[in-house]
TrEMBL record:
Entry-linked Gene3D superfamilies: 3.30.300.30, N-terminal domain of ligase-like
MF terms in GO: acid-thiol ligase activity
Protein name: 2,3-dihydroxybenzoate-AMP ligase
Pfam families from the UniProt entry: AMP-binding, AMP-binding_C
Cytoplasm is among the record's keywords: no
C-alpha cells in the first residue's frame, strides 16, 4: 500500500522464523464454540455462529456496494454490536477500517477521510446527543453507511447479503488504521498489518490469562487500541471468551453489568479506576466475578494501585501501551511491589528498547531516566503518508521515538517518569498542544496561544490555554463554542484559559512551556 512503511526484509524473516508472525488473519479471530455467547451488547446476545454469519453477510453487503480489498473505510461507531460486525466484515473483505472515536467531529473526520481517501464512512444516526448524519452531510465521501435511521444515506441494515467468496487478504497487508494520540497540528494514522495485530492480540491474551471462560467487559471506546486488542475484544474472541459492551465506565452502568454477566476482566483508564475504588465501597453490586483489572492510558499512582486488589478483590495489571505498537504489561504473578510501582515490561521478547537522552540521542546510564525508543514485531515503522513527520519520529535505524520519559529497572520493568512531547494526557485522552493552538489561533481575538497541562487529582492532567489576546479576551465559554463550531472533538477543548501579556521564552527564543506549567502547579 502506497504511503505504508514496512519492516526491512531481515526483520520480516526474523519475526516469521521466531514465530511472532503467522498467516492468521484478523477476520479469523472468532474461535469460540459456535453455540457459545460471543457478544452481549444492550439487549442483543450473539453466539459465535450468529456473529460469524452477520460478519460474512455484512462483508457481502459492503462488497455489493463496491468496497474491495485495499480500500479504506472510516468507522465511527460507539460500543454497539454493529461496531463488532462492521469491523469483522471489513477486515474479512481486506478493506481497512480507519478507527475514529465517537467524540471526533468535522475537524478530525474530514481530515481522516481525505488522508485515507476513504471510500465509505460508517456512523450511528445519533449518539450522545449528536447527529452524525449532519457531520456526514458536510463531507465529500462516496458512501455513508448509517446504523439506524439512514435518511438519504445507505442503511447498515441494507448491507445484508448472501455471503460471497472473497479475495482473502495477505497477512502482510494493512489490516486497519489506528489514530495516534498526536503531537502535531493534524492527527496521524497508524497502519497495523494483519500479522502484527494478530500477534498483538494473541500474545496479549496469553499474558493476561484469557481463556474461553473469560468474560471481558468493555467500558472504554472499543475503537481504542486498549479495548480492541490489548487483549481487548479481539483477544477475548481469539480464545473463545465472551465480550460484554458497556456504554461507559460509570459505576452505575458498569457495575450492574459486572454482576449480571459475571464479568471477569476489564480495561480502564486511571480516572475510572479511581471512581470504581470509591463507588465499590458503597455500591450493592456483586463484583466478586472480577479477576483482572487492567489500568493504562495514563499513569496510575502507587496508592490507588495498592488499593485495587483490596477494594475490588481482583488482580491489578498496569498497562503502558500505545496505538503505535509497544505494549508493556505487569505480569499476573509479578510481586505487588512491581505491580504497584511500575508500568510493566514489554510484551514480546523481540521488543527492542533504548532509553536515551532526548537531546543528544545517546543512551543514558542503566537505571536513569531518558526517552524511550522502541522497535519490534508490532511497532509501526512509519505513520501513513507522513514522510516529514516520520523523519522526526523515527531514528535512521527504525526505532520509534515515543516521547515518553522512562526509567528501566533490572527486571526490565519500565517506570513512566514524564513526557518529552507536546501533548496533554487528560485522563488517558491525548490532546496535541499544537493542534489545539492551531484552532485557538484562528479565533479573531487570539494573537498567540500556548497550551500546557495542569495537574489534576482525578484526571492526572487537564488542559490550560495561555493566550495573548487583542481586544476583549474571549471567555472560556466563548472559546468552547468557537471550537465546537470548528468541529473539534470536545475532549480537546481547554479546561482553563489564562490571558497574559507575553510568553516566557527559553534561551533560544522558544515559548517556555515548562515555565508556564510551573505557574499552574
Ligand atoms: C503512563 N503513560 C501512559 C501508562 C499509556 C493500552 C494502554 C494504553 C494505550 C494508550 C494503549 C500509560 N502510564 N500506563 O494503546 O493498548 C501514554 C504514553 C503513551 C501514550 C499512548 C493500549 N499508558 N500512556 O494510551 O496511543 O504517553 O495508547 O505514549 O492513546 O499514552 O497513547 P495511546
Amino acid at each position: 500500500m502506497d504511503g505504508f512503511t514496512s519492516w526491512p526484509n531481515d526483520l520480516v524473516a526474523r519475526y516469521i522464523a521466531e514465530g511472532y508472525w503467522s498467516d492468521r488473519l484478523l477476520g479469523d479471530v472468532l474461535r469460540g464454540d459456535p453455540g457459545r455467547i460471543a457478544l452481549v451488547a444492550g439487549d442483543e446476545r450473539l453466539t459465535y455462529a450468529d456473529l460469524d454469519r452477520r460478519a460474512d453477510r455484512t462483508a457481502a453487503g459492503f462488497h455489493r456496494l463496491g468496497i474491495r480489498r485495499g480500500d479504506r473505510v472510516v468507522l465511527q461507531l460507539p460500543n454497539t454490536a454493529s461496531f463488532v460486525v462492521v469491523f469483522l466484515a471489513l477486515v474479512r473483505l481486506g478493506a481497512a477500517p480507519v478507527l475514529a472515536l465517537p467524540a471526533h467531529r468535522h475537524s478530525e473526520i474530514g481530515y481522516l477521510c481525505e488522508l485515507s481517501q476513504a471510500r465509505a464512512y460508517v456512523i450511528p444516526d445519533r449518539h450522545g446527543g449528536f447527529d452524525y448524519r449532519e457531520l456526514a452531510r458536510s463531507l465529500d465521501v462516496e458512501h455513508v453507511v448509517v446504523d439506524g435511521d439512514a435518511a438519504e444515506f445507505t442503511a447498515l441494515a441494507s448491507l445484508d447479503a448472501e455471503p460471497v467468496p472473497l479475495d482473502r487478504p495477505d497477512p502482510a497487508d494493512v489490516g486497519l488504521f489506528l489514530l495516534s494520540g498526536g503531537t502535531t497540528g493534524l492527527p496521524k494514522l497508524i497502519p497495523r498489518t494483519h500479522r502484527d495485530y494478530v500477534y498483538n492480540l494473541e500474545a496479549s491474551a496469553e499474558v493476561c490469562g484469557f481463556t474461553a471462560d473469560t468474560v471481558y467487559l468493555v467500558v472504554l471506546p472499543v475503537a481504542h487500541n486498549f479495548a480492541l486488542a490489548c487483549p481487548g475484544i479481539l483477544g477475548a474472541f481469539a480464545v473463545g471468551g465472551t465480550v460484554v459492551l458497556a456504554p461507559s465506565g460509570s459505576p452505575d452502568e458498569a457495575f450492574p453489568l459486572i454482576e449480571r454477566e459475571r464479568a471477569t476482566a476489564c480495561a480502564v483508564v486511571p480516572p475510572i479506576a479511581l471512581l470504581w475504588l470509591d463507588a465499590a465501597t458503597w455500591s450493592d453490586e456483586d463484583l466478586s466475578s472480577l479477576e483482572l483489572l487492567q489500568v493504562g492510558g495514563a499513569k496510575l499512582a502507587a496508592e490507588p494501585a495498592a488499593q485495587v486488589p483490596k477494594v475490588l478483590g481482583c488482580v491489578l495489571q498496569q498497562v503502558f501501551g500505545m496505538a503505535e505498537g509497544l505494549l508493556n504489561y505487569t505480569r499476573l504473578d509479578d510481586p505487588p511491589e512491581l505491580v504497584e510501582t511500575t508500568q510493566g515490561r514489554p510484551l514480546c521478547p523481540a521488543d527492542e528498547i533504548r532509553v536515551v537522552d532526548p537531546d543528544t540521542g545517546e543512551p543514558v546510564p542503566e537505571g536513569e531516566t531518558g526517552e524511550l525508543l522502541t522497535r519490534g514485531p508490532y511497532t509501526l515503522r512509519g505513520y501513513y503518508r507522513a514522510p516529514e513527520h516520520n523523519a522526526r519520529s523515527f531514528t535512521p535505524d527504525g526505532f520509534y521515538r515515543t516521547g515518553d520519559l522512562v526509567r528501566r529497572l533490572p527486571s526490565g520493568h519500565l517506570v513512566v517518569e514524564g513526557r518529552h512531547k507536546d501533548q496533554i494526557n487528560r485522563g488517558g485522552d491525548k490532546v496535541s498542544a499544537e493542534e489545539l493552538e492551531g484552532h485557538l489561533l484562528a479565533h479573531p481575538a487570539v494573537h498567540d496561544a500556548a497550551v500546557v497541562g495542569m495537574p489534576d487529582p482525578m484526571m492526572g492532567e487537564r488542559t490550560c490555554a495561555f493566550l495573548i489576546t487583542r481586544g476583549t479576551p474571549p471567555t472560556l465559554r466563548e472559546l468552547k463554542d468557537f471550537l465546537r463550531e470548528r468541529g473539534l472533538a470536545d475532549y480537546k477543548w481547554p479546561d482553563r484559559v489564562e490571558t497574559v501579556d507575553t510568553f516566557p521564552r527559553t534561551p533560544v527564543g522558544k515559548i517556555s512551556k515548562k515555565e508556564l506549567a510551573a505557574r499552574l502547579a
